[in-house]
Amino acid sequence: MPVIALIDDDADIVENNRILLEANGYTVVSAHCVDDAVELVERAPPDLIILDVMMQEADDGYYLANRWRKSGYTFPIIMLTSISKSIGFRFGDSALAPIEEFLEKPVDPEVLLAKIDHHLTQSTSRASQ
Q1: β pairing state of 3-7 and 48-51
Q2: Domain limits, the chain
Q3: 62-112 pLDDT, tens per residue?
Q4: What are phi and psi of 100, to 5 degrees?
Q5: Residues 6 or more apart whose Cβ sits within 8 Å of residue 92
Q6: How many whole angstroms separate alpha carbon 65 and alpha carbon 77?
Q7: Per-residue pLDDT tens for 8-44?
Q8: Architecture of the CATH domain 3-128
């Protein structure tokens, strides 16, 4: 059963996504701040991370994604964010961060599940090569 880490400072978003993911067979772990996220990943790296951009600081998600990639972690990272609404600029280019995908909040549950399945499948394919 794949482990998905939800990293977001909004407890409601974490809980809603936890319910969705667990109902679809995933094991879910979560963190609400940078320090807890770092500890969670160092203790037991998940199979995929759903990461908020703006937490305590406006760029916490970027910081974490870069930190993990520089440390050699290869798990897929999906940024689930409302940053476009906050700054009026649509993000969609993952070249801005070492991630697989940007998704805007609120995201349709079926879209989120499809993206998770896609990235977990891709990750498994890369690992077996």
Answers
A1: parallel
A2: 3-128
A3: 999 999 999 999 999 999 877 655 555 455 555 567 899 989 888 999 999
A4: -90, -30
A5: 102
A6: 7
A7: 999 999 999 999 999 999 999 999 999 999 999 999 9
A8: 3-Layer(aba) Sandwich (3.40)
Find residue 79's DSSP bridge partners.
51, 102
| 3-class DSSP assignment, residue 38 | helix
CA distance 39 to 23: 26
Q: 75: part of which helix (H) or strand (E)?
A: none
The owner of tokens 């890369």 is 126
Cβ pair 8, 80 in contact under 8 A: yes
Q: Report the C-alpha gap between 61 and 129 in whole angstroms.
A: 29
